[in-house]
Amino acid sequence: MADPTSSPRPTVLVIDDNLDAADSMARFLRLGAGFEVNVAYDGQAGFKAAIKHTPHAVVCDIGMPKLDGIRLAKELIAHLPTKPLLIAVTAYPGEYPERQARAAGFDYYLTKPADPFVIERLINCRGS
Predict the structure, then answer these.
(1) What residue ranges do the domains of the chain occupy?
(2) How far is it, in rounded angstroms, from Cα 42 to Cα 120?
(3) 125: CB partners within 8 A, 6+ apart
(4) DSSP letter string, 43-108
(5) How many beta carbons lie within 10 A of that of residue 84, not counting itself?
(6) Residue 117 burial (CB count, 10 A)
(7) Domain 8-91 sits in which CATH superfamily?
(8) pLDDT in tens, 56-76
């Protein structure tokens, strides 16, 4: 029986068109951090998964075909009942891409390879 005083584990959605990167991050967040994790390999699948699971946090690549991370963040904010914690994990360093991501609604902007322990702390700091 679950402890009624314990808070539920944060749910996290990892979205990256690099399957190895997505799966590695998801594995760490699931096994190492104990989060409930779903994975999507493109922006469109990520949008559908977010609508279905309403994640606490989204760890998202920016440079994806079809629906990139910038447009995806705007769509998630517009369509989810509450804004999830949005963490960009991208290969695009620099001030201009970071400004674009923050303007789209990302809370954090990390360049690849992102430290999964940092992502875990960011999610835990937000609280569940």
Answers:
(1) 8-91
(2) 22
(3) none
(4) HHHHHHHHHHH--SEEEE-S--SSS-HHHHHHHHHHHSSSPPEEEEEES--SHHHHHHHHHHT-SE
(5) 23
(6) 11
(7) Response regulator (3.40.50.2300)
(8) 999 999 999 889 999 999 999
Q: Cβ distance 35 to 29 under 8 Å?
A: yes
Q: Which amino acid is at 15?
A: I
pTM: 0.91
> Containing H/E element for 116?
helix 116-126
Nearest to 14 by CA among 1, 3, 27: 27
Query: What are the tens digits of pLDDT across the range 87-120?
Result: 999 998 889 999 999 999 999 999 999 999 999 9
- What does the chain come to in residues? 128
How far is it, in rounded angstroms, from Cα 35 to Cα 29?
Answer: 6
Using alpha carbons, select from 57, 64, 63 the residue that is nearest to residue 106: 57
Strands of the sheet containing 85-90, edge to edge, are: 36-40, 11-15, 57-60, 85-90, 108-111
